[in-house]
Amino acid sequence: TVVRMDDCMKTQLVCAIHLQEVELQEKPADEPQGSKNNNNNNDQTYTVEEAVETIGFGRFHILLFVIMGSSNIVEAMEIMLLAVVSPEIRCEWHLENWQVALVSTMVFLGFMLCGVVGGYIADRYGRWKVVFGGFVWSAYFSLLTSFAPSYSWFIFLRSMVGCGVAGVSQGFVLKTEFIPAKHRAYLLPLATIFWMLGSMLIIILGMLVVPVLGWRWMIRLSVTPSVLLIFLFKFIPESARYHMSAGNVQAAVEILQKIADMNRAALPPGRLVEPAQRERGNWRILLSSSFRRTSLLLWYSWFVASFAYYGSVLSSSELLEKNLLCVTDADQEHQVKHRQEDGLCYCIPFGVSDYQTLLISCLGEVALVPVNICLLNVFGRKMSLAVLQLLAAIVFMMVNICTTMFGFTVLLFLLRSLVSMNFNVVYIYTAEVYPTVARSLGMGFCTSFSRIGGMIAPFMAQVHSGSGALSIR
């Protein structure tokens, strides 16, 4: 019995020792396994682009679309104001054709010069600061324009407004960098609705306010949307892509996390990693071997898009104001000519029918948005750009055909549709083709070249004749 007890005790002791050895062997094996899992989580990384795509489209993007789209209302009102106010300032200061054209040219000159500067500042110090500063700047100088005591002061203050609008236009870059790639071809063309609303709003203000209170009060009332947007803009964060390019990783993560929470989504697992870029806002990137050809073609495309768009806007208003239309059913108010035997007739204000024609043409900017979306998704950016420019050139020539007032309105409607779609495509392609470190600068250079087209368009439309400007396109 004693022997059996000893054997049993020995057996239990051996089993205990063996079990302890097994535990000691398994424990080190388990710890590396846990550490390995932690290391795998830590080794996983994602970029801002991957985070934006993972978060997807949600409530934040609706807010972004509405607020940043509303900036297009401000930009459209400031640009379209030139077409509405031209007959009034011509009458008040007895301006020659070249003086009226110089007003638009000075606005685009301010836009061109500040476009490059604004793009550089946006890449170096942030998109949000430039866009917000553009709102404040354009609203302030636009308000001062309504108090201009002379023509010289008027063109100076309008050039300052153009400088502010150049900063506001950087909002397109800020908006694009937050939108998932698959939604850009849908959302960005839809933003044309806001531009149309801005154009229609300033035309309605002109129709209702100018005959009663004059053009100065029209400008004062047109500043209201800018003031409202200044307060709403606090809900829009700085670009996460900019923070990453500047090395502010924590700030980028916080912004992306807020967007994910608002959209009820989650960020990808792992760490946000992208190398900090030292050459932010370097113009040499645009002319490097990788982007030289793209930049040159884009600069020309922006020039053509701007010349076509503002040429159509200013030419149509000039044709209506001076009654230069070749129509077969002209009514009595369209028979008063600008050039008469005893000199120039400086005061030919817009009639109600003229405002209505401009309103209908504005609707053309959104009427073919579904076609624009289909072109972008089916044929891509470059092919869509080529097709739209060709069609716009054909319609430009058709406007010179003598027709009825209804026929002219239809052609003007189609023309505004095509040139607006052309602008949409070139905007989207430019925002996508350049890297983050040079995106705002690239957009700034492109908008500056477009303003060269905008500077030439007034002289072709208002110094020569509206039909001549349409033909040269």
CATH class of the largest domain: Mainly Alpha
**Which fold name corresponds to the CATH topology of the largest domain?**
Growth Hormone, Chain: A
Which CATH-level-2 architecture of the largest domain?
Answer: Up-down Bundle
Number of domains: 2
The CATH superfamily title of the largest domain: MFS general substrate transporter like domains
Uncertain segments of ≥5 residues (pLDDT<50)?
1-6, 8-38, 466-473
User: Number of helix segments?
Assistant: 20
Q: Looking across the biggest beta sheet, what order are the strands in?
A: 1-2
Oligomer: single chain
Gross morphology? globular
Give helix and strand order, one letter per element, not per position. HEHHHHHHHHHHHHEHEEHHHHHH
Whole-Å distance between the termini? 116 Å
Using only C-alpha atoms, the radius of gyration works out to 30 Å
How would you explain this protein's 3D organization?
It holds the Pfam family MFS_1. GO terms for molecular function: transmembrane transporter activity. With 473 residues, this protein is mostly helical. Helix content is 77%, strand content 2%. The chain starts with a helix and ends with a helix.
Characteristics:
two-stranded antiparallel sheet, MFS, 473 residues, 2 domains, 77% helix, mainly alpha, two-stranded parallel sheet, disordered N terminus, disordered C terminus, Growth Hormone, Chain: A, globular
Any chance you could write out the topology, listing elements then pairs?
Elements: H1 2-43, E1 45-46, H2 48-55, H3 59-93, H4 97-125, H5 127-145, H6 151-168, H7 171-176, H8 181-190, H9 192-213, H10 215-222, H11 224-232, H12 240-245, H13 249-262, E2 271-272, H14 292-322, E3 339-340, E4 343-344, H15 352-367, H16 369-378, H17 380-398, H18 405-433, H19 439-464, H20 466-472
